[in-house]
Design brief:
heterodimer, A: seven-stranded mixed beta sheet, four-stranded antiparallel beta sheet, B: mainly beta, globular
Chain lengths: 122, 107
Protein backbone atom coordinates (compact mmCIF):
# COMPACT_ATOMS: atom_id res chain seq x y z
CA UNK A 1 0.00 0.00 0.00
CA UNK A 2 1.45 3.30 -1.07
CA UNK A 3 2.28 5.73 1.71
CA UNK A 4 3.67 9.23 1.68
CA UNK A 5 5.45 10.87 4.61
CA UNK A 6 6.48 14.50 4.89
CA UNK A 7 9.52 15.47 6.92
CA UNK A 8 11.33 18.68 7.72
CA UNK A 9 11.56 21.52 10.24
CA UNK A 10 8.38 22.61 11.91
CA UNK A 11 9.63 26.13 12.51
CA UNK A 12 11.24 28.45 9.96
CA UNK A 13 12.34 32.05 10.46
CA UNK A 14 10.96 34.82 8.26
CA UNK A 15 12.98 35.44 5.08
CA UNK A 16 14.55 31.97 5.28
CA UNK A 17 13.89 28.89 3.17
CA UNK A 18 11.32 26.24 4.01
CA UNK A 19 12.55 22.76 3.01
CA UNK A 20 10.45 19.61 3.15
CA UNK A 21 10.87 16.09 1.83
CA UNK A 22 8.20 13.57 0.95
CA UNK A 23 9.28 9.94 1.15
CA UNK A 24 7.30 7.45 -0.90
CA UNK A 25 7.00 3.90 0.44
CA UNK A 26 5.15 0.87 -0.84
CA UNK A 27 5.67 1.86 -4.45
CA UNK A 28 8.10 3.47 -6.85
CA UNK A 29 8.25 7.18 -7.53
CA UNK A 30 9.27 6.21 -11.08
CA UNK A 31 5.81 4.89 -12.00
CA UNK A 32 4.84 5.92 -15.52
CA UNK A 33 1.49 7.57 -14.88
CA UNK A 34 2.07 9.12 -11.49
CA UNK A 35 3.03 12.68 -10.76
CA UNK A 36 3.77 14.01 -7.29
CA UNK A 37 2.51 17.20 -5.77
CA UNK A 38 2.68 19.59 -2.84
CA UNK A 39 -0.44 21.20 -1.41
CA UNK A 40 -0.76 23.37 1.67
CA UNK A 41 -3.58 24.29 4.00
CA UNK A 42 -3.80 27.41 6.09
CA UNK A 43 -4.56 26.55 9.73
CA UNK A 44 -6.41 29.85 10.01
CA UNK A 45 -8.69 29.76 6.96
CA UNK A 46 -8.57 25.98 6.25
CA UNK A 47 -8.21 26.84 2.59
CA UNK A 48 -6.25 24.47 0.33
CA UNK A 49 -3.62 25.77 -2.08
CA UNK A 50 -1.79 23.73 -4.70
CA UNK A 51 1.93 24.57 -4.73
CA UNK A 52 3.35 22.50 -7.56
CA UNK A 53 3.82 19.09 -9.14
CA UNK A 54 6.76 17.03 -10.37
CA UNK A 55 7.26 13.95 -12.55
CA UNK A 56 10.05 11.47 -11.80
CA UNK A 57 11.90 12.77 -14.85
CA UNK A 58 12.22 16.13 -13.09
CA UNK A 59 9.58 17.93 -15.14
CA UNK A 60 7.70 20.43 -12.97
CA UNK A 61 4.83 22.86 -13.03
CA UNK A 62 4.04 25.39 -10.34
CA UNK A 63 1.30 27.64 -9.04
CA UNK A 64 2.04 30.99 -10.68
CA UNK A 65 1.38 32.79 -7.39
CA UNK A 66 4.31 30.95 -5.79
CA UNK A 67 6.46 30.15 -8.80
CA UNK A 68 9.12 32.79 -8.12
CA UNK A 69 9.84 31.28 -4.69
CA UNK A 70 9.30 27.54 -5.21
CA UNK A 71 11.53 24.70 -6.32
CA UNK A 72 10.38 21.08 -6.36
CA UNK A 73 12.94 18.37 -7.03
CA UNK A 74 13.02 14.58 -7.11
CA UNK A 75 15.58 11.98 -6.07
CA UNK A 76 14.58 8.66 -7.59
CA UNK A 77 17.43 6.81 -5.86
CA UNK A 78 15.89 7.73 -2.50
CA UNK A 79 12.30 7.47 -3.72
CA UNK A 80 11.51 10.93 -2.48
CA UNK A 81 10.74 14.42 -3.72
CA UNK A 82 11.33 17.74 -2.05
CA UNK A 83 9.94 21.24 -1.70
CA UNK A 84 11.93 24.42 -1.22
CA UNK A 85 10.08 27.68 -0.62
CA UNK A 86 12.30 30.71 -0.12
CA UNK A 87 11.78 34.14 1.43
CA UNK A 88 9.02 32.86 3.67
CA UNK A 89 6.69 35.08 5.68
CA UNK A 90 4.01 34.40 8.26
CA UNK A 91 1.59 33.91 5.37
CA UNK A 92 3.44 30.70 4.53
CA UNK A 93 2.50 29.15 7.85
CA UNK A 94 0.47 26.09 6.90
CA UNK A 95 0.08 22.35 6.98
CA UNK A 96 2.09 21.08 4.02
CA UNK A 97 0.89 17.91 2.33
CA UNK A 98 2.54 15.82 -0.32
CA UNK A 99 0.25 13.80 -2.55
CA UNK A 100 0.17 11.50 -5.55
CA UNK A 101 -1.40 12.74 -8.76
CA UNK A 102 -2.46 9.43 -10.27
CA UNK A 103 -3.30 10.38 -13.81
CA UNK A 104 -0.40 11.98 -15.67
CA UNK A 105 -0.45 15.26 -13.81
CA UNK A 106 -4.17 15.76 -14.24
CA UNK A 107 -4.62 17.23 -10.79
CA UNK A 108 -6.40 14.28 -9.22
CA UNK A 109 -4.70 13.62 -5.89
CA UNK A 110 -5.64 10.19 -4.60
CA UNK A 111 -3.02 9.45 -1.93
CA UNK A 112 -1.95 12.07 0.61
CA UNK A 113 0.67 12.21 3.30
CA UNK A 114 -0.36 12.99 6.86
CA UNK A 115 0.79 16.56 6.51
CA UNK A 116 3.32 18.55 8.48
CA UNK A 117 2.70 21.88 10.15
CA UNK A 118 5.28 24.51 9.33
CA UNK A 119 5.20 27.72 11.33
CA UNK A 120 7.04 30.81 10.13
CA UNK A 121 8.10 32.83 13.13
CA UNK A 122 11.20 34.44 14.59
CA UNK B 1 -6.27 31.63 -12.72
CA UNK B 2 -9.64 29.93 -12.56
CA UNK B 3 -11.47 30.80 -9.35
CA UNK B 4 -13.65 28.17 -7.66
CA UNK B 5 -16.56 29.35 -5.50
CA UNK B 6 -18.47 26.99 -3.25
CA UNK B 7 -21.84 27.49 -1.62
CA UNK B 8 -22.96 27.37 1.04
CA UNK B 9 -19.89 27.76 3.23
CA UNK B 10 -21.59 25.63 5.86
CA UNK B 11 -24.80 23.71 6.33
CA UNK B 12 -26.56 21.71 8.99
CA UNK B 13 -28.86 18.85 8.08
CA UNK B 14 -30.51 15.87 9.71
CA UNK B 15 -29.45 12.27 9.31
CA UNK B 16 -31.14 10.89 6.21
CA UNK B 17 -31.50 14.28 4.52
CA UNK B 18 -30.45 14.91 0.94
CA UNK B 19 -27.59 17.41 0.89
CA UNK B 20 -26.34 19.38 -2.08
CA UNK B 21 -23.19 21.47 -2.33
CA UNK B 22 -22.51 23.79 -5.24
CA UNK B 23 -19.25 24.71 -6.87
CA UNK B 24 -18.89 27.34 -9.58
CA UNK B 25 -15.83 27.92 -11.78
CA UNK B 26 -14.99 31.42 -13.01
CA UNK B 27 -14.66 30.02 -16.53
CA UNK B 28 -15.59 26.78 -18.24
CA UNK B 29 -13.61 23.72 -17.18
CA UNK B 30 -15.59 21.02 -19.00
CA UNK B 31 -15.78 18.13 -16.52
CA UNK B 32 -12.35 18.65 -14.97
CA UNK B 33 -13.73 18.90 -11.46
CA UNK B 34 -12.65 16.98 -8.37
CA UNK B 35 -14.32 16.69 -4.97
CA UNK B 36 -12.53 15.93 -1.69
CA UNK B 37 -13.82 15.18 1.78
CA UNK B 38 -11.84 16.26 4.82
CA UNK B 39 -13.00 14.99 8.17
CA UNK B 40 -11.98 16.95 11.29
CA UNK B 41 -8.29 16.50 11.99
CA UNK B 42 -7.81 14.25 8.98
CA UNK B 43 -6.25 14.38 5.54
CA UNK B 44 -8.33 15.26 2.46
CA UNK B 45 -9.79 12.19 0.76
CA UNK B 46 -10.56 11.92 -2.95
CA UNK B 47 -14.30 11.40 -3.48
CA UNK B 48 -15.10 12.19 -7.09
CA UNK B 49 -13.14 13.10 -10.22
CA UNK B 50 -14.17 13.97 -13.72
CA UNK B 51 -17.13 15.75 -12.10
CA UNK B 52 -19.10 12.52 -11.71
CA UNK B 53 -16.81 9.48 -11.37
CA UNK B 54 -16.86 8.00 -7.91
CA UNK B 55 -13.46 7.04 -6.53
CA UNK B 56 -13.17 3.36 -5.63
CA UNK B 57 -14.49 2.62 -2.15
CA UNK B 58 -16.60 5.76 -1.83
CA UNK B 59 -20.21 5.04 -0.77
CA UNK B 60 -22.80 5.28 -3.51
CA UNK B 61 -24.79 7.89 -1.57
CA UNK B 62 -22.24 10.38 -2.89
CA UNK B 63 -22.68 11.64 -6.43
CA UNK B 64 -21.39 14.47 -8.55
CA UNK B 65 -22.80 16.27 -11.54
CA UNK B 66 -22.25 19.27 -13.73
CA UNK B 67 -20.13 20.52 -16.58
CA UNK B 68 -18.71 23.81 -17.74
CA UNK B 69 -18.96 26.21 -14.83
CA UNK B 70 -21.56 24.74 -12.48
CA UNK B 71 -21.13 21.59 -10.45
CA UNK B 72 -22.92 19.81 -7.62
CA UNK B 73 -21.96 17.29 -4.98
CA UNK B 74 -24.95 15.40 -3.59
CA UNK B 75 -25.18 13.20 -0.54
CA UNK B 76 -28.44 11.30 -1.03
CA UNK B 77 -28.91 10.33 2.60
CA UNK B 78 -26.67 12.11 5.09
CA UNK B 79 -24.94 9.85 7.61
CA UNK B 80 -23.16 10.81 10.84
CA UNK B 81 -19.82 9.78 9.33
CA UNK B 82 -20.29 12.35 6.56
CA UNK B 83 -19.56 15.23 8.93
CA UNK B 84 -16.68 16.90 7.15
CA UNK B 85 -15.62 19.82 5.01
CA UNK B 86 -15.99 19.24 1.28
CA UNK B 87 -13.75 20.95 -1.26
CA UNK B 88 -14.05 21.18 -5.01
CA UNK B 89 -10.95 21.57 -7.16
CA UNK B 90 -10.38 22.55 -10.76
CA UNK B 91 -8.20 20.03 -12.60
CA UNK B 92 -8.64 21.60 -16.03
CA UNK B 93 -5.29 23.22 -16.57
CA UNK B 94 -1.78 23.26 -15.26
CA UNK B 95 -2.93 25.44 -12.38
CA UNK B 96 -5.08 23.60 -9.87
CA UNK B 97 -7.33 25.71 -7.67
CA UNK B 98 -9.61 24.77 -4.79
CA UNK B 99 -12.92 26.10 -3.62
CA UNK B 100 -13.17 27.54 -0.13
CA UNK B 101 -14.91 24.48 1.29
CA UNK B 102 -18.35 23.61 2.61
CA UNK B 103 -18.62 22.42 6.19
CA UNK B 104 -21.35 19.83 6.71
CA UNK B 105 -22.72 19.23 10.18
CA UNK B 106 -25.52 17.15 11.66
CA UNK B 107 -28.52 19.03 12.99
Amino acid sequence: QLQLQESGPGLVKPSETLSLTCTVSGGSIRSMSYYWGWIRQSPRTKGLEWIGTIYYSGSTFYNPSLKSRVTISVDTSKNHFSLNLNSVTAADTAIYYCARDWNYGSGIFDVWGQGTLVTVSS
Amino acid sequence: DIQMTQSPSSLSASVGDRVTISCRASQGISDYLVWYQQKPGKVPKLLIYGAATLQSGVPSRFSGSGSGTDFTLTISSLQPEDVATYYCQNSNSDVFTFGGGTKVEIK
